[in-house]
Amino acid sequence: MRHTSRRTFLRGLSGAALALPWMESVAGTSSAAAVPQRMAHFYVPIGVVRRGFFPGEADDIIPKGNLGNVMKSLGKQNPKLSVKPLRDLTPTMRPLETFKQKINLITGMDRTFQQGTDVHAQCASCYLSSARPYTIKGTAWPLDRTLDHMVADHVGRKTPFSTLEFSCNSHNDNKESIYFDNISWYGTSHLAPSIRDPRRMYHRLFSSREIDRYRDVTDLVLEDAKSLSKDLGVSDRNKFAEYFESIRTIETQMDRLEKMRAELAKVDFEEPPEAYLPRGEYIRLMGDLMVVALQTGLTNVTTFMVGPERWDTPYQFEGLFDKPRSHHQMSHNQTKMIDDLLKVDLFHMQQYVYLLEKMDAIEQADGTSLLDNTLFTYGSGLGDGSTHQYNDLPIIVAGGGIRIKAGQHINLPEGTPLANLWLTQAQLLGLSINEFADSTGIVDQLLS
Predict the structure, then answer these.
(1) pLDDT digits (tens, 9 = 90+) for 49-98
(2) Distance between CA 194 and CA 144 in Å, rounded?
(3) What are phi and psi of 384, to 5 degrees?
(4) Domains of the chain, with CATH numbers?
(5) What is the H or E stretch that residue 195 is in?
(6) Are strands 11-12 and 268-269 parallel, antiparallel or unpaired?
(7) Cβ-defined contacts of 162-165 (< 8 Å, 24+)
């Protein structure tokens, strides 16, 4: 039988991406060892309306003011741990009904906050780092190397892209700084810039011209660096050795991408249009690109921002409102606009569920799904957008297969650091670490 790549069966983008199940004749092997473990993060800006998302808060008074951590009482956190079956879903979570047995709702976790910097910028940029306040020198932010890059150091060694960063901010007005629009960082002050344009992401993943351009640049840089290194002292040569290693890492990634090029060329994958796309289509298109990148082995680690923090430029939420609306501005008038905000929260949850459905429909070599082999986390750096509270965050962990328990509402004791979840995920992905940022332990209740 003639061997056919399963990648030839991938259909998509600018429409529906068709994901057929794994077939022996297509795969050529059924080895479970070939199935990689993956991690993806779906970030929601500006928190959520607590009454619609959190169990038991439907009748609560809408909070007022900008009180930050003074608002801890709003979270209704139980000082004791509780773990309950995830049964009746709140209005914002109802799209998850068919995935109740593949998700965990986690409440009670707090995000690190360092006084003196903007709450919105800090909650986005520090979401995946959670460094202890005032421990990072030379910066006003508690911002360190983020979880995705630490995990990628372990599970991304053989993929063309160690990580991929997706953003659904279609605006280019740059009203806010990079801290409002990025959750992925190589380290303090070293941004891993997200890609907003579907066409640009498409070309990065599938265009041979991108490889040639990277190859030309790295060749020139290495040639110049080698020439310069002859005139350096011992100390500077050691520094150059580190520099060479970083450039060689890029070369290695390009080599891996070139080896996959013949296979990727078989992917029937339309180039995204330049035309304006309605908000939902735009988010789903970026999501399709993310799923295909994970499925085809281009990367094992992704971050996905469904929108930026405090970006007052309005979006046209087609199907929700008659005219463009600013999510941030609505959040500060929650009393009058609660119904509209609940629509936005539901809309974001529907996009998350769309990606869950796609990932769950993709079968792997061992018969499990792409979702089963991916820790796919929905979350926000704020527990409530109107009060700017950074405690009791809305977190959902999907996937993970047999490695984690599912179908639970885990309410952690008040003050549990968000970094405890990140430490747990790092260990599940194979990292031998006992702490991460301001963690105090792992979330045992997630583990099988």
Answers:
(1) 999 999 998 887 765 544 444 344 444 445 689 999 999 999 999 999 99
(2) 17
(3) -155, 125
(4) 39-197+279-446 (3.40.720.10)
(5) none
(6) parallel
(7) 162/253, 162/299, 162/301, 163/192, 163/299, 163/301, 163/302, 163/303, 164/195, 164/201, 164/290, 164/293, 164/298, 164/299, 164/301, 164/302, 164/303, 165/192, 165/193, 165/194, 165/195, 165/302, 165/303
